From TrEMBL, chain A:
Source organism of this protein record: Sinomonas humi
One biological process term in Gene Ontology: transmembrane transport
Designated name of the protein: ABC transporter permease
InterPro entries, per database record: MetI-like, MetI-like_sf
Keyword Membrane: yes
Keywords: Cell membrane, Membrane, Transmembrane, Transmembrane helix, Transport
Family recorded in the similarity comment: Belongs to the binding-protein-dependent transport system permease family.
Organismal lineage: Bacteria, Bacillati, Actinomycetota, Actinomycetes, Micrococcales
Region Disordered, residue ranges: 1-30
Gene3D superfamilies: MetI-like
One Gene Ontology term, aspect cellular component: plasma membrane
UniProtKB/TrEMBL annotation, chain B:
Name the UniProt record assigns to this protein: ABC transporter substrate-binding protein
Pfam families to which the protein is assigned, alphabetical: SBP_bac_1 (PF01547)
GO biological process: maltodextrin transmembrane transport; maltose transport
InterPro entries, alphabetized: SBP (IPR006059)
Taxonomy of the source species: Bacteria, Bacillati, Actinomycetota, Actinomycetes, Micrococcales
GO molecular function, one term: maltose binding
PANTHER family: MALTOSE-BINDING PERIPLASMIC PROTEIN, MALTOSE_MALTODEXTRIN-BINDING PERIPLASMIC PROTEIN
Amino acid sequence: MSTEVPARTRAKAAPKSSRQMPGRESADRKQVTQGRWASVLLLPTLILLAVVIIYPVVNAIIMSFQKDAGLSSSGFFVQGGFAGADNYVHWLAQQCNGVSCPPGTLGSQFWGAMGTTFLFTAITVVLETVLGFWMAVIMARNFRGRSVIRAAVLVPWAIPTAVTAKLWFFIFAFQGIANTLFNTHILWTGSEWPARWAIIISDTWKTTPFMALLILAGLQLIPDEVYEAAKVDGANAWQRFTQITLPLVRPALMVAILFRVLDALRMYDLPAIMTQGANNTTTLSILVVDQIRQGFNSAAALSTITFLVIFIVAFIFVRFLGANAVGAATSSGKK
Amino acid sequence: MRKTFSKYAVPLATASVLALALSACGGSSGGGSNNAATQNTDGRGPITYVQGKDNSNVVRPLVDKWNAAHPNEQVTFKEQSDQADQQHDDLVQHFQAQDANYDVVDVDVVWTAEFAAKGWLQPLTGSMAFDTSQMLPATVKTATYNNTLYAAPQTSDGGLLYYRKDLVPNPPKTWDEMMSMCSIAKQHNMGCYAGQFAQYEGLTVNAAEAINSAGGQIVDSSGKADVNTPQAKTGLNNLVQAYKDGNIPQQAITYQEEQGRQAFEAGQLLFLRNWPYVYNLAKTDGTSVVKDTFGIAPLPGMTDGKPGASSLGGHNVAMSVYSKHKATALDFMKFMTSAETEQFYATQGSLAPVLSSLYTNPTLTAKLPYLPTLLTSIQNAVPRPVTPYYPAVTKAIQDNAYAALKGDKSVDQALSDMQSALQAAGAK
């Protein structure tokens, strides 16, 4: 509706300017019609986005301010009514009915889960970046069988995460391959740090190929001439790596890291299948899913908190660390 | 600036208005709509039966049999996934949508109270009354919420003690007796006892059994948490002490049902607490080295003459309050729990019946020799807490029992935390 108003004003203004500048009118009108057409063409997409993204997000936020259903005296659940910020206080301050949540409740696990999530994210992303870079550098070289290696590297990434998790679950069983191979008796899924390392190892195994491919794409954008010129100037291999490869691959690398961080922050399947969140391996996503079975509204508050946390991390990445996943498109659009 | 604004104004406005409108209609859900329970009670016509994956092809032949006899009241079988969590969530979604097409549903014993309290299950009273007098009392308890029957027991399951009869001629009757036999296990360089001690639903089952067998309870008859008692302490302490002593091998803290079964079949365990399904596998598995050398007994109790209190597995069959054809649905529920059907469950699917008479039926015991032992188990069973807050309750039990087993906290502390967590679960 509102597009028509400025369009009309512009149409009125057009004849005035046309006196001075013939030919401007048609260009202007063309632009207006194009703009209108663009809106019309974009409308289905935007409606779809509204239905699948905006509606659930808005609804979750509304729900997060409602109390969970409670039992009436006759033993039936009744709507809880407006809760104010209670659900948020419940999670952030770990308060259950005015007292600190006792161990064995989901509420008592919030900050622990937050810590675990960030721990997993930090360690896995660092490992995956280093290993992925290494793999990418190897794959970028020209050698016989390169395409075979590239395909082979992708295999872990192609396996569904649930299958990966089950696979590593068996590997890390007490009588599994890991213990047999190294002749150890570690309770991988039965104690805190081994369980965490088991998950970190599985995640690294699975996702390093993704990193490697994204970095490889960045590496292949660097023209060979630059390296040749550096060689002529007498730069050694290490100098070429730090002075040419790293700065030139940085945009692609930052985007890859951003993707991985966002992905790792919502890690669910690996710990859910390997440990069911036992031994302090509960991530925020596992906590949300567990809470959904106990009460939707608290779960809505928790997922809103998770959403904000991930949003802030993404914002920091894009704003301060220059991960330009969206910027490239906008800047070219401005021209 | 202005141009950019106008370009995006329409879609943006549309989107936000749409979001608001949609969220407005998405607000309400659930609630105890008791009106629905009084409607359509004499309705007859086609209905749908909803159950998890029918792995051993039990349901289809039964539905075919029903359909042949009831041409005007056909039953359609809707098969869910084989994952319990997914079945639960699928039921919740359809009940919330007040779906009239989910007429008769199969519910896990631990979900029954939750669905009843949500007002989704038809109370089986008045014209909908259901006769449970022939059924094992513990199974009826799992279907009863607030003194009202909301479902009919369909299949049951109880814990058994698997033991090596070549090493232990007479199975232990009490926990202490079993612990004293652990020296035999040590001589043979094998683990003594294992159950399900990984932190998941299986630990709730095992911890509840330990506590109930020692005369404690998790919730009292009115549903209030009552776990911080000397009896409960004795029960949980039995497990904790056995783990500390090595009578429960250290790796058992990672065991679910399958890992325990494999260890037992490999001859690495003297005693194993597990479900009846292990029986046939241990007898027939190619890798089983205990085929002819294992026996079964009721779970050990505290004193001779009183077997341990098993937790109960199994499923109940219930009717949706939103069903349009409740008279048909009730008939179908009766058909699905009849003696003939129960016998078919047992022979075709190895599912334990809920009718006590079948446990001594010679045809059945020939095929399933564990039935008489299982009967003892189920007769002494205590259902897991029947509460609408079951997910929170089981978490309170397993988290704290696990911490006690690992030695992260004392048994006293674990029980006191469990008590607080149970209270928080019920009140929130």
